[in-house]
Amino acid sequence: MNPNLSLFLKTAYYLSISYFSYLMILITIQYIPINFDVAFLNIKEEAIAKKHYQIAFFSHVYTSIIVLITGITPFSTFIRTTFSKVHKTLGLIYIALVLFIASPSGLIMAIYANGGIYSKISFTIQAILWFVFTYLAFSYAKNKDWEKHQKFMLRSYALTLSAISLRLFKWMIVGTFELPPMDTYRLVAWLGWVVNLALVEIYLIRKAKK
Asked: Which helix (H) or strand (E) holds 39?
């Protein structure tokens, strides 16, 4: 690939992730301090009445920004080679948050997902794959198999980015089609992570061929 094009794509990638992370921060701020009568929770009255859902929801929301940000920098070759301790520390924070908070809380939230059984199945699969990919990335790093570590970190972060891509697909569909709200939600529940994962797999296949 042309070096200038590669630099442009990398810059565009980091800028877009930074921008959408900023938008996620704005969403998160709505729930600080803990507030049950705001935004998404207004349509989750039955679920939010349950204590375990409250714990899952707020732990998931509060860790989402940290996971997004700590997941960006480990993919930087510059940070990985020049600041190896920073790379390792941020990677461990990312892995710990996903394995112990973000993925388990996402699995609990999946059980109460809007959109019926189709959305629940989608979010359940996503939460399980998120845990498995992240754990494998950690396991391969411990065994110093850096190639497989990087592949599974890419897969893990693709699922992390579903928090952004889900909202992006929703915005695109609502602006293009006139679908009932729940039909839109069922659709983006799958698109939000399946498309991300497919793009990563295509990238890895093309990289392997080269």
From this structure: none
